[in-house]
Write a structure and sequence with these properties.
Elements: E1 6-7, E2 10-12, E3 23-24, H1 28-34, E4 36-37, E5 43-45
Parallel strand pairs: 1-3, 2-5
Antiparallel strand pairs: 4-5
Length: 54
């Protein structure tokens, strides 16, 4: 992880590098457009996902 990253209720593949300033789990509407979210509200980020902004 890089500086300024905010993570909340997420499961990230161990090979992923989360870029600086990324916020995951803060805005579920934005996260829903970019990642899969489980029925229990956990954001699932696999190695096939990217961190481009929607």
């Amino acid at each position: 992880m890089c500086e300024g990253v905010q993570l909340r209720r997420c499961n990230i593949d161990r090979k992923m590098v989360v870029p600086a300033g990324e916020e995951i789990g803060v805005d579920l509407a934005s996260d829903r457009q970019r990642f899969q979210i489980s029925d229990s509200g956990i954001i699932v980020i696999s190695r096939h996902d990217s961190f481009t902004r929607a």
